[in-house]
Design a protein that fits this description.
The complex is a heterodimer of chains A (503) and B (357). Chain A has 17 helices and 24 strands. Chain A has 503 residues and is an alpha/beta fold. Chain A starts with a strand and ends in a 5-residue tail after the last helix. The radius of gyration of chain B is 22 Å and the shape is globular. The chains are: A alpha/beta (503), B mainly alpha (357). Chains A and B meet through helix 10, helix 11, strand 20 and helix 13 of A and helix 11 and helix 12 of B. Chain B: Keywords: Cell membrane, Membrane, Transmembrane, Transmembrane helix.
Chain lengths: 503, 357
């Protein structure tokens, strides 16, 4: 192994409106090593690799390649240096063939005419090198299994002169045998001097394949260059969870009304292939948290009980009345509200005024014979935005112009206006800065105190533990733990959540 | 520094480079603080002004080239009378496009409605009973076609482009079958008398267009239906998760445009005193063009009735000016194409400015 760094990133800062995504990241990768990037959801791993692949431009900091400063201005520039990234969500064109995908953008051609036989030959060589000669070069990619698609992405990276390969949770779609094969391929590559940046939540895998580890937390590097074989797991979990930001959680009510009848009851809810056998009951005034990894089925559980997805089995009852399956209007009518995960694409009408975003679920209340009383709409919206302290004030403002935290308050105001009895919050503080987070936590707690039943989904374990009264841990579509939030700590949840398939 | 100059002389704003964006914001802020205007009008206000200027330019060209033959009350009413039926279709089209869809079948539906309302059977019933039968026939056929479109799009999940393309072919074909490709002459006197009436010198057709435009404006800007249309077109997923029945709303939008086609067919039948399977040919293009140059976003979520009306008037006046100068329709088509491209380029630039603020 060569000790001179191939890639050095120093003091990388990336800001998004209202949020500091990266606040000074250090990373140093040597040729021929597998460098693992570790951190909780939202720690900044994805943002960092997007900077590496030049999808994002850093606001501050420098990137050195073989000791020389470089600017990664376009994805092409990154590729020319030899940086290839394989994303969690594969970026292949499903209707093109395997060979066409591998050489997309750098097709082999003579005077504009593609060299079909040469392309196929080189594709077969690449696939053979990856130990997957059984994949047909002429088959369309959309008809391959996820594992095979990942091999095609790897072949695509290898078809160019790759010197640094970034793998973002490559094992998420693979079974045990396929993971073993992936590791074999990675070892072959590193033996040839290729550097690999490997991102995974599964500590066991990192133990097996990694050389050194960099730990990110809240957008900053908390440790870098740790030798895998000399760092105990407890140390890693401590680094990932060690608090640098003080989350301010409102105190739980002293005597939560654990005796009342549940307002929301979910029995045996199942969405085929995603989650199964979910039982849940929430009483008025109670906050229940769902913790788990991205892809574990948390958001799907919320969306299914809200009626946005049609369950394959199970029932949802609100105040004793069964909801019609797969009908959002039925859920809304019964008093259920959802603040969705993707606030911008699922929750808001970005190019419309704050007030019309707030009243969109309650229009009937402001209309007589279908005619809207927009003065009343503005008045009620103003009262709500003032009580929630949405800044800047003014309900005619376009929602697009608000920060993440204030946008989230607008979504909450919508359901407040509807007097909803069950509130489902999916990643309520994603993209929200620290100050506004505390306000949102306090708001959720005060809603619960007023008798609303709340279900919170969050990737941030400390958020679930700090906010909720009761916690359910979800792994791979099943609830693996349920208990009061006060009786479980973060590292236990991480243990439950990350218990990987690799032994 | 620039603040000083602008406060002294508002005209100076145009001399600097950056204030182009500022003027948009200022207008928006002004309209917002006005309260009653509402966010929608404010966004399209600047654009509408630009459109009115364009319309005035065309009028000026008319006055210069054709003089009194253009600038007379008679000619004005003729232009309006000819624009009115297409205008009604364009109002309906504004709703569909604002709601995130498109309807290519409007011209064919107009033809089918015109034929259905003037068949021998319909007209006999109209003579025996009342001419209102013809009105109901046209409206029912239009709404029916819209219903088929809407159900296929909302529940069948066929994309609007394909669904309405199929309706375009089928409805015109059906109109040809029913009419046996013959022009059907209107013989019901009551119908002819009613629709060719004037109110204080203004043709009834023009009044119908005005009423539909006003009703359309109220419906889009002041009702639950209109607000939901903006939501469904702007972000269907968010609308669905907010509890709006997006599928049902989509169906209603296509039924609405179908009804507009039925009404337009009646206006066309009365103007030409015939029903024909060739009525409304290429109206889908004229209607979409008027809506788009009016400032309604082709991707949905923002719509302006005022813009559509001005858009219709621009094309109608342009046609009139060309005809008065004995230019053929081909030159006119080229000019139309140019106007569409320029308007859309402008619209995109404005959209980009709005996003960067």
């Amino acid at each position: 192994m060569n000790d001179a760094p191939l890639l050095t990133m120093r003091g990388i800062v990336k800001r998004f409106p209202g949020v500091l995504a990266l606040g000074g990241v250090e990373l140093e990768v040597r040729a021929g090593e597998v460098h693992c990037l570790l951190g909780q959801n939202g720690a900044g791993k994805s943002t960092l690799i997007k900077i590496l692949s030049a999808s994002y431009q850093p606001d501050e900091g420098e990137i050195l390649w073989e000791g020389k400063p470089v600017t990664l201005s376009t994805p092409q520039a990154a590729m020319e240096l030899g940086i290839s990234t394989i994303y969690q969500e594969l970026d292949l064109v499903p209707d093109l063939s395997v060979a066409e995908n591998i050489f997309l953008g750098h097709e082999l051609s003579t005077a504009g005419f593609s060299q079909r036989s040469e392309t196929l030959r080189r594709t077969r060589d690449l696939l053979a090198r990856l130990g997957h000669s059984e994949i047909q070069a002429t088959r369309s990619v959309g008809r391959l299994s996820p594992a095979a698609q990942q091999i095609v992405s790897m072949a695509r990276a290898l078809s160019q002169d790759t010197r640094l390969l970034v793998l973002d949770e490559p094992s998420a779609v693979l079974d045990q045998g396929e993971v073993d094969n992936l590791f074999r391929v990675i070892r072959d590559l590193t033996a040839e001097g290729v550097a690999v940046v490997y991102i995974s939540h599964r500590l066991e895998e990192i133990r097996k394949i990694g050389d050194r580890i960099t730990v990110l937390k809240d957008g900053s590097t908390v440790a870098t260059g740790l030798a895998v074989d000399q760092t105990p797991t407890s140390e890693l979990i401590k680094l990932m969870t060690g608090r640098s930001i003080e989350y301010v959680f409102p105190p739980r009510s002293d005597a939560p009304p654990m005796t009342g009848d549940p307002i929301l009851e979910v029995i045996g809810l199942e969405l085929a292939g995603v989650f199964t056998g979910v039982d849940l009951s929430v009483r008025p005034g109670e906050i229940v948290g769902l913790a788990g990894l991205v892809g574990a089925g948390r958001s799907e559980i919320l969306e299914t009980l809200y009626g946005a997805r049609r369950p394959s089995a199970g029932t949802v009852r609100v105040a004793g009345k069964e909801l019609r399956r797969g009908s959002v209007p039925a859920a809304v009518k019964a008093g259920v509200g959802l603040a969705p995960e993707e606030r911008k694409s699922q929750g808001l009408l970005l190019d419309q005024a704050i007030y019309s975003n707030i009243t969109v679920s309650t229009l009937g209340r402001f209309s007589r014979f279908g005619l809207l009383d927009s003065r009343a709409e503005r008045k009620r919206s103003t009262e709500l935005t003032e009580s929630l302290d949405v800044r800047p004030a003014g309900v005619d403002r376009l929602v697009r112009l608000l920060s993440g935290g204030n946008q989230q308050k607008v979504v909450l105001a919508r359901w407040l206006l509807r007097d909803c009895r069950v509130l489902l919050l999916d990643e309520p503080t994603r993209g929200v800065d620290v100050g506004a987070r505390a306000e949102i936590y306090a708001l959720v707690r005060s809603l619960a105190d007023s008798g609303v039943a709340v279900v919170v989904v969050s990737s941030e374990v400390e958020e679930v533990l700090g906010l909720a009264d009761r916690v359910l841990v979800v792994r791979e579509g099943r609830v693996v733990h349920e208990g009061p939030a006060g009786e479980i700590d973060e590292s236990r949840v991480l243990d439950l959540v990350m218990e990987g398939k690799v032994a | 520094m620039s603040e000083q100059s602008t406060s002294r002389d508002t005209g100076a704003v145009e001399n600097t480079v950056t204030p182009a964006k500022d003027t948009v914001t200022v207008e928006r802020a002004a309209a917002e603080s006005g309260g009653g205007g509402g966010g929608l009008m404010s966004g399209s206000f600047g654009r509408n002004l630009g459109l009115v200027v364009a319309l005035l330019l065309i009028c000026a060209a008319g006055v210069i080239t054709a003089g009194d033959r253009f600038a007379s009350v008679d000619n004005l009413l003729t232009v309006l009378r000819f624009a009115s039926a297409l205008g009604v279709v364009a109002i309906g089209m504004t709703f569909v496009i604002t709601g995130g869809g498109i309807d290519l079948s409007v011209g064919a539906i107009v033809a089918l409605c015109s034929v259905w309302a003037t068949t021998f059977a319909t007209q006999s019933m109209a003579t025996d009973f009342h001419w209102i039968v013809m009105v109901f026939a046209a409206l029912a056929v239009g709404a029916g076609c819209g219903l088929v479109n809407g159900v296929l799009i909302a529940y069948g999940k066929v994309v609007p482009f394909i669904t309405t393309l199929a309706m375009l072919a089928a409805a015109r074909g059906l109109a040809e079958i029913i009419s046996e490709r013959r022009t059907q002459i209107v013989t019901v006197d009551g119908f002819k008398v009613f629709f060719s009436a004037d109110v204080f010198g203004v043709p009834l057709l023009v009044i119908i267009f005005a009423l539909v435009a006003i009703a359309g404006w109220v419906l889009l800007n002041r009702t639950t239906f209109g607000r939901r249309t903006l939501a469904v077109g702007g972000n269907p997923e968010a609308a669905r998760l907010a509890g709006i029945n997006v599928n049902r709303h989509t169906v209603m939008l296509y039924v609405l445009v179908g009804l507009c086609c039925g009404l337009a067919a009646l206006m066309l039948v009365s103007r030409t005193t015939t029903g024909s399977s060739t009525h409304g040919t290429l109206w889908e293009l004229d209607a979409i063009a008027a809506v788009v140059i009016g400032g309604t976003l082709l991707t949905g979520g923002r719509g302006t009735i005022v813009g559509t009306v001005v858009g219709v008037l621009i094309f109608a006046t342009l046609g009139n000016v060309f005809t008065l100068n004995n230019q053929d329709t081909s030159t006119q088509a080229v000019a139309k194409g140019l106007i569409i491209v320029v308007a859309v380029l402008l619209q995109q630039r404005l959209a980009r400015n709005a996003n960067s603020t």
